Amino acid sequence: MADKMVAIMKTKPAYGAELVEIDVPKPKEGEVLIKVLATSICGTDLHIYEWNEWAQTRIKPPQIMGHEVAGEVIEVGPGVEDIQVGDYISAETHIVCGKCYQCKTGNYHVCQNTKIFGVDSDGVFAEYAIVPAQNAWKNPKNIPPEYATLQEPLGNAVDTVLAEPVTGKTVLITGAGPLGLLGITVAKAAGASLVIVSEPSDFRRELAKKVGADVVINPFEEDVVKEVRDLTDGNGVDVFLEFSGAPKALEQGLQAVTPAGRVSLLGLFPRNVSLDFNNLIIFKSLTVYGITGRHLWQTWYTVSKLLQSGKLNLDPIITHKYKGFDKFEEAFELMRAGKTGKVVFFPHKK
Ligand SMILES: NC(=O)C1=CN([C@@H]2O[C@H](COP(=O)(O)OP(=O)(O)OC[C@H]3O[C@@H](n4cnc5c(N)ncnc54)[C@H](O)[C@@H]3O)[C@@H](O)[C@H]2O)C=CC1
Ligand SMILES: CC(=O)[C@H](N)C(=O)O
Ligand SMILES: [Zn+2]
Ligand SMILES: [Zn+2]
Asked: Coiled coil located at which positions (predicted)?
């Protein structure tokens, strides 16, 4: 094995990142070293790249970026028992304490002491990477790395879509960014009867159709609420899934969902949102779920089984694949411009 590796590193507290050559790390107590087979860009990586306000308060350069991954274990550190060399793994991003009230009551996804892998520690945009063994998820060997790396965001989408069953239900998805696109394929695989997608970008509405959306709407040119009512016998959709983080989309979705319907909110809003709670939620008797991260480990089982079922349509979502990291700046700029679905790197060129 090589002793040097290439990594995308946030070297300075400023816009961008650098490709660096550094030593391959050694796994410490409770850690494993993987050969990274595939890694994908998350919106959070983009925020770190852009050095937005959140990143400025949270990230401590120099740090290797990235947290979505599929890789092969090549070394295990002391004290690691259930992961072996040769295992093919992905990683849960939330490093939980196992001791707080939420962990003790099975709600690891909202652990009070959560640290985020690749945000609060070195990540996986590298040829080799350290993963905390407690966060490793063993993959069946028949899932290709480019799909296995998507399991973490797929987990966000699964928790959003499947907070309650969608079989036979009409669904509105607002926002067809990478996560909304994953939401579309999960909703279709789970048997939603009609998936309507509201998304202003022409490129992403096209992607949404390729992934399986039944109807796409441009919210900047069409009346979302009227379109949804027309498509649902005037009733509104059974389920509203918010994947955009746009306050206007939230309001339109709450108007478009039928009374006693279900709402899942994943998108993060840039500012406080003001709403007519009485008429949009309370008198409509809506059930509203806030979604964060993934349930440990129930969501991973669901995601893995969905992948193995072959029912997810992921190929149109993976719009960009790069061998090596040489063109990482192009990848980030395309993503910033909204001209991608998921971007996947295969760090080893051979
Ligand atoms: N709750 C959680 O645990 C997590 C939340 N997120 C959040 O989920 C959201 C989706 O993530 P990505 O897909 O990566 O983000 P993205 O920013 O790539 O996608 C958002 C999409 O919403 C579209 N949009 C903008 N205004 C709209 C409107 N008025 N109506 C409908 N669509 C509109 C945009 O054109 C874009 O395609 C983001 O807000 C992100 O911060 C991401 C990861 C985890
Ligand atoms: C912080 C992240 O980017 C992550 N995808 C999450 O689900 O929390
Ligand atoms: Zn992420
Ligand atoms: Zn905890």
From this structure: none
